[in-house]
Specification:
CATH superfamily of the largest domain: Nucleic acid-binding proteins
Radius of gyration: 27 Å
Order of helices and strands: HEHHEEEEE
CATH topology of the largest domain: OB fold (Dihydrolipoamide Acetyltransferase, E2P)
Shape: elongated
Number of strands: 6
Amino acid sequence: MESLLIADVSPDILCENLGEDMNRKTRAMLLTLLLSVSIFVIACPKRVSIADIEANPARYQNKSIAVAGIVKTSYGVSIPFSKSGGGAYKISDGTGSIWVITKKGVPSKNSQLGVKGKIQNGATYKGKHYGLVLIEDKRKFKKN
């Protein structure tokens, strides 16, 4: 059996093999990046204006969406030393306003935030009818 030394192999063969290996690695990294971005984009709800929601509520009914704006008013229930709580708050984005129903504590007036959730028509909370509402899944406050 002959031993093969690197000196016996032509530089063209070494570069060709190295290039194929680099191409495979590059393709694998690009594919992984593409899949990651696709999953991120699909998982993020579409941000829409409140005016669009009010103009066509059936289009957004029971769909995950995101809105951003300023809290105009809020009503919350908090029972100390318990997990009970929640409430409703009205958020305005400059195009309109919508009530948001939450199981968490309500944000204070003039808070700037983004809210993700599902649109429902005809929601009642604690005996009060709110009409078109966003049922909150997540919220994120704007950093100052």
